[in-house]
């Protein structure tokens, strides 16, 4: 049975997902698209050879009985309304981060999903499908390094535009580390603090860059995450877990090495599309496969989206206070307690 997708937001990642569902993954088909920029939606039909209907907005797209599931790949502030409308329409939803831009918005989605009675939503925290992070989690779970004590992470972009703000470093960029780091160690966050090293000359006037975010978990693990969005040299994601008896680190992205002009080196990627290309494929294939197999998606849940939103809110508070801020989560509903493994990790 082919899963028929409607796409809400045909921009950069929306097009990446249209391409992979149409040309690479098994079991999906794009049957509907919409974008507030209608020309963008129209353009996808020819660009990707889609046999799909262009709708004026998410509501009319969701009313299409041939749509089984939607991809919410619009701007973050638009996610909550589209996800709630999809749940109301009893459609499966794959939503790119953030689930919603506020913790309250995430809770509205959690409550709507619980009221519906079964999981419909998967959040696009794709790093949980990245083979490097999966290997880190296996090493930790197998006690290969003993108990994890500390984590050092870095999220480096080559550069960002003038529209990129200091708080985006948290809710748009570091949100990936916020989700994946507590998942790695299976521990809840307790506090967060933000410090600002010397400002990079490449950071625009109104941006504090780089930033160092220090997270502490309930179990006492201390995580230091560097956000550096004008590093110039590449798109570079680092993660090192220091344990009682050893250290495990993300592998460098696979590339040939070279010897030339008295130099020895390897290539560094410049774009997130390439660094996590396999993880994007796996998360969407798992979304389709697990729904077909169990009737529910089993990737990152709306509750994971809530945890990320609460933590990001506290980190943004810490950006402004300079203090160690508490991270206070509501009690996790039993509805989200079912442990699941990716169907095709
Ligand atoms: N998982 C990941 O690694 C990544 C996730 N993202 C997330 O994906 C989302 C989209 O990001 P990009 O594709 O980079 O942005 P983009 O700006 O390239 O595309 C967003 C599209 O959504 C459309 N749009 C905005 N509001 C809409 C609405 N209410 N209804 C329909 N269409 C609407 C815009 O016209 C635009 O075409 C963001 O939430 C972003 O955080 C983006 C890049 C990477
Ligand atoms: O979600 C993303 C991308 O995946 C990159 O990791 C970030 O650097 C970017 O800011 C964000 O939009």
Notes on the protein architecture:
- This protein is of the alpha/beta class and 345 residues long.
- The protein has 2 domains: 3-127 and 278-307 and 331-336, NAD(P)-binding Rossmann-like Domain (Rossmann fold, 3-Layer(aba) Sandwich); 131-270, Dihydrodipicolinate Reductase, domain 2 (2-Layer Sandwich), CATH 3.30.360.10.
- The chain is 36% helix and 23% strand.
- It has 10 helices and 15 strands.
- The strands form 3 sheets. It has a 7-stranded mixed beta sheet with strand order 12-11-7-10-9-8-15, with helices on one face.
- A hairpin with a 2-residue loop joins β13 and β14.
- α5 (103-116) packs antiparallel against α10 and α6 (131-141) packs across α7.
- The protein is globular, with a radius of gyration of 20 Å.
- It starts with a strand and ends in a 19-residue tail after the last strand.
- Residues 157, 172-173, 176, 272 line the site of ligand LHRXVYBP.
Please indicate the count of domains: 2
Tell me the β content. 15-25%
Mean of residue pLDDT? 96
Strand order of the largest sheet: 12-11-7-10-9-8-15
Number of helices: 10
Strand runs, count? 15
| Distance separating the two termini | 21 Å
* CATH topology call of the largest domain: Rossmann fold
Q: Could you give a short account of the major beta sheet?
A: 7 strands, mixed
CATH architecture classification of the largest domain = 3-Layer(aba) Sandwich
User: Percent of residues in helical segments?
Assistant: 25-40%
Q: Over the alpha carbons, how many angstroms does the gyration radius reach?
A: 20 Å
What does the overall shape look like?
globular
By CATH reckoning, the class of the largest domain would read: Alpha Beta
Structural class: alpha/beta
In CATH terms, the superfamily of the largest domain is NAD(P)-binding Rossmann-like Domain
């Amino acid at each position: 049975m082919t899963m028929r997708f409607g796409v809400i937001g045909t921009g950069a990642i929306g097009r990446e997902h249209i391409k992979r569902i149409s040309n690479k993954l098994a079991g999906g088909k794009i049957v509907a698209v919409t974008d507030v920029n209608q020309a963008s939606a129209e353009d996808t039909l020819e660009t990707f050879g889609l046999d799909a209907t262009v709708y004026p907005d998410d509501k009319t797209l969701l009313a299409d009985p041939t749509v089984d599931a939607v991809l919410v790949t619009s701007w973050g502030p638009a996610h909550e309304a589209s996800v709630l409308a999809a749940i109301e329409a009893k459609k499966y939803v794959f939503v790119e981060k953030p689930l919603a831009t506020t913790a309250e918005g995430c809770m509205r989605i959690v409550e709507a999903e619980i009221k519906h009675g079964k999981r419909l939503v998967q959040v696009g925290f794709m790093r949980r499908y990245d083979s490097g992070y999966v290997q880190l989690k296996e090493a930790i779970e197998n006690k290969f390094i003993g108990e994890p004590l500390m984590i050092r992470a870095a999220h480096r972009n080559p550069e960002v535009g003038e529209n990129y703000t200091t708080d985006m470093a948290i809710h748009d960029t570091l949100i990936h580390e916020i989700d994946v780091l507590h998942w790695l160690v299976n521990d809840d966050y307790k506090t967060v603090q933000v410090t600002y090293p010397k400002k990079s000359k490449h950071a625009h006037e109104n941006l504090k860059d780089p930033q160092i975010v220090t997270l502490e978990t309930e179990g006492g693990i201390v995580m230091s995450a560097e956000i550096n969005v004008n590093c110039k040299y590449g798109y570079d994601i680092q993660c090192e877990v220091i344990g009682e008896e050893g250290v495990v680190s993300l592998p460098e992205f696979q590339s040939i090495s070279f010897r030339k002009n008295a130099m020895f080196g390897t290539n560094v990627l410049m774009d997130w599309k390439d660094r996590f290309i396999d993880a994007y494929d796996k998360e969407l294939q798992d979304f389709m496969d697990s729904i077909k197999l169990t009737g529910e998606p089993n990737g990152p849940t709306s509750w994971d989206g809530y945890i990320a939103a609460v933590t990001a809110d506290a980190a943004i508070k810490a950006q402004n206070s300079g203090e160690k801020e508490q991270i206070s989560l509501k009690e996790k509903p039993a509805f989200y307690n079912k442990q699941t493994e990716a169907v095709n990790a």
